[in-house]
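C-alpha cells
===========
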Amino acid sequence: MGQTMAQLPYHYGVKVRIFPSSRQKQLIKKNSDASRFIYNAMNGMNRELYELRQVKLLISLVLQRIKTLEDRLKRPSTGISNLHGWLNDPDLDSLMKANAIKNYRAAWKLFRQVHHAGTPVFHKKRIAQKYQTSAQYAAQISQPSLYNGSVRLLDKHFVRLPKLGKLRFKGWPSRLLTSDTAIRIGTTTVSMDATGRYYLSMQLGAEQPFVKQLPATKSALGIDLNTENFLTDSQGNVVANPRYYRSIKGRLAKAQRKLSRRARRAKREHRSLRSAANYQRQRVLVANLQRRVANQRKNFLHGLSTTLIKNHELVVAEELRSRNLLKNHALAMSIADVGWRTFLSMLSYKADLYGRRFVAVNPRNTTQTCHACGFIMGTANTAKLTLRDREWTCPHCGTHHVRDHNAAQNILAKGLARA
C-alpha cells in the first residue's frame, strides 16, 4: 500500500463544482444531517458527562450513567448507531460517520492546543450542507492513484463517490490529469452552499511536488498591508484596494431589508420560512450577492499572492491579528473587506508549494521607524505619526518618507534579519 496521506511529503487541495441528480441531492442531505447529528450527539454526551462529574455525592444511578457515557464515547460509531437505529440506514456512508467522530475529537485537540476558539459547540441546522468521506484503496493495489480508490476519477468530467455513485463535475486542473506523479486521494468533502450549488473538495497527496520548482530569482520583497491601498511593497509599487463589498453594499442592504420584510410577513401568516416561496427566492438572491463578492475577493487574492510568490525568492509581511483589528468599529468593515488573514495564509502555503520563502514579522514600530537612520517617532520629544500622516520627514536625518513605502522597507529589513 505504501505511505499513508499523513506520511506523504506533498499535499494539494482541489475544489470542483459537481452536478448531482435529484436522488443524489437527497443522499447528500441525508449524509449531511447524519454527520451533524453524530457530532452533536458526541457533544451532548460530553457535556452531560461533565455535569455528572460535578456531582458531589455520587449515587449508584449517577455512577452507572457515567460509565455508560464513557463506554459510548470510547466506541461512538457503534454506541450512537445502536441507540439511534436510523443511523444504520444503507444510504449512509460509514466513512462519513468515522469522519464526523474524527472531526469532533480534532475540535477538542485544537482547543487544548490553542485555547482560542473555545470548546466544541453544537452544529446548527442550516441551509448549507456538508459531510466528509475518505478514499480507501484495496490491499492488492500497489500504487494508489486518482483512478483506483473508493473515491476516484472516471475521466476528466466524472467522478465516483461511495453511496452517491457517478457524478459530473467541472473545473479539475488539467495539469493534474496529465501528471506522471502518482497522486493519492485522501479526505473528500461534499458540500452545498446557501445558493444551492454543490461542490467537491479533495485532499491530494503525492511523493513528488505538484508544481515544478521555480528558478531562483534572488529577489526579496517586503509588503505593507493597509486599507488606503491594499498593499505597498518595498520597491514602491502600490496595489489598489478593490473594495468589493463596498461596491455592492447599498444593493445588498436593500435586498436584505426586503428579505426581512418577507420573513415578518411569513411569521404573521404562521408559515415556516422553509415553505415560504417568496422568502426563499429572496434568500437565494441575497446569498448570490454575497457569494459574488466572496468569489471576486478570492480571485483577486489568489492572483496577487501567486504573482508575488512566483516573482520573489523571499516575501516578508507583517503578522496581523484580524480578530483584534476588527474591534476598531471605525475600520472594521474596511478590514473585513480586504481579507488580510486569507491573503497571508495564501502567501504561506503557496511559498511552500513553489519552493519560496514567506516570513511574517512583528509589525511593531514598522510605521514609526525611519528606514534610513532607524529613528523612531514618538521618542526624543517627537509626536507619533497618526493615520492621517501619509508622508513625513525624519527629524533626525531629514529623509522624506511616503508612510507605507517606508513601512514596507522596514518590514523587509526585519525579514532579512530573520532569514
